[in-house]
Amino acid sequence: MLTAAIGDVPIELHHVKSLAPARRLIDDGPIDLALIDMDVLDGAGTELVSELRQRNSITQTIMICGEPSIERAIEAIRAGAADIIARPLKARELNERVQQALNRHENDRRKRRRVRRLKRTCKKLNQLRCEITEQVDVLCSDLVCAYQDLASRMQQAMQASEFASSMRRELDLEQLLRKALEYLLAKAGPTNAAIFLPAGPDQFTLGGYINYDCATDSADVILEHLADGLAPQVADQDKTLHITDNDTLAVWFGADAAHLMDSHLIVFNCRHEDEVLAVVVLFRDMGQPYDESVLETVNTISPMLGDYLAKVIRIHHRHIDGLDDDSWDAVA
Questions:
Q1: Residue 331 pLDDT
Q2: Segment 307-324, tens digit of pLDDT
Q3: In CATH, which superfamily holds the domain spanning 2-114?
Q4: pLDDT mean over 194-218
Q5: Between vectors from CA 144 to CA 138 and to CA 145, what angle results, nearest 5°?
Q6: Which whole number is the average pLDDT over 13-33?
Q7: What is d(CA 163, CA 155) in angstroms, rounded to the nearest whole number?
Q8: How far apart are CA 37 and CA 247, in angstroms?
Q9: How far apart are CA 167 and CA 184, in angstroms?
Q10: How many CB atoms lie within 10 A of CB 266?
C-alpha cells in the first residue's frame, strides 16, 4: 500500500514487523523517514521514535495509530514524532503525509548543510579576524612608536629653537656660558652645574658654575676634581654620561668619588668639527634623580653649544688661522 501510495518517488523501502529487526535496520545506516505503528507487537513504538531522534535529529517519523486520542498524540509528539495518521490508511492521505515528511527532511538537510557551511565560514572568519587583530596590533604598536618618535623630534626641535633664540646673538663668552647654565637650570630644576673649558691638552678650567646645595668649602674641592679627573675623560666620549649609582661613580672617579657619593651626574661634551670646546657637568643628590627629559635636553643642546662656542672663538680670534697647544690658555 505504501509503495503504491508514494508512486514514483525514488526511495528505498524497508519493512519490518517488530522492534528488534527495526533496531538492526537503524544500526545499518541513517533513516530519512520512518512510519511506525504505535502498537507493534513487542513494545511501544514511541521507544523506536526516541531512538531514531537521538541517532539522527532530522529523521522524520510518522506514527500510525488505530484509535487516535489527545493522550496518544501528546505521547507521540513528546517522543519526537512529526506526524500521526489514523487507521484505516487512505492512499491519498498517506501519499500527502509522506511527501510532506520527505520535504521536511530535505529542508532540514539543506539547513544542516548551510549550518555546516556557516560554521566553516565562521571558523575562517575567526581565523582572519585573529590575523587582522594581530596585524592591527602591530600597526598600532608601529603607530605608537612613530608618534612617540615624532613627539620626541618635535620636542627636540622646540628645545633647539628655544635654546637658539636665547643664544643666537650672544657674542660674549661669559654671557654665553651664563645663559647656557640658566637654560639647563630651567630644564633640569634646581641642580649644581659647571661648564669646563679646555686649557691645554687634557686640561680643563672652570668656565661657569651654579651652586645649588654644596657647601662653599666642598664646592671648590668638587670642582677641582671634576676639572682634573672627570672632564678630560668625558672629552673623548661620544655619548652623554649618566651616572646613577655609587659603583659607577667610583669607576670614573676612583678614590675621589667620596666627594660625590650618593649623587646623580649628567656629563656631556660640546664639540665643533670633532673638537671639544666644553665639558658640562650636572650633579645633585640621588633623592632628586634626573629624568629622561633632561637627557633629551642635553643631547639636543650639546652640539648647538659647541657651535656657539666656536662662533665666539672665531669672532674674537679672526686673526688666528689655527690654535696650537700653547695658545689654548690665551683662548680659554
A1: 43
A2: 999 988 887 765 445 545
A3: Response regulator (3.40.50.2300)
A4: 89
A5: 90
A6: 86
A7: 12
A8: 96
A9: 13
A10: 23
CA dist 191 and 7 (Å) reads: 104
Mean pLDDT of 244-251: 90
pLDDT score at 205:
93
Q: Are 81 and 63 in contact (CB under 8 A)?
A: yes
Fold identical between 2-114 and 169-331?
Answer: no
Length of the chain (residues): 332
Q: How many CB atoms lie under 10 A from the CB of residue 242?
A: 18
Task: Summarize the confidence of residues 169-181 as an average pLDDT.
Answer: 87
C-alpha cell at 74: 501528546
- Report strand pairing: 192-200 vs 275-285: antiparallel
Res. 30: pLDDT tops 70:
yes
Q: Which amino acid is at 113?
A: R
What is the rounded distance in angstroms from the CA atom of residue 224 to the CA atom of residue 230?
Answer: 10
Q: Which of 284, 278, 254 is nearest to 266 (CA)?
A: 284
Residue 270 pairs in a beta bridge with 278
Q: Where are the domains of the chain?
A: 2-114, 169-331
- Judge contact between 98 and 62, C-beta under 8 A: yes
- The Cα 75–Cα 61 span in angstroms is 13
C-alpha cell at 186: 630651567
CATH architecture for residues 169-331: 2-Layer Sandwich (3.30)
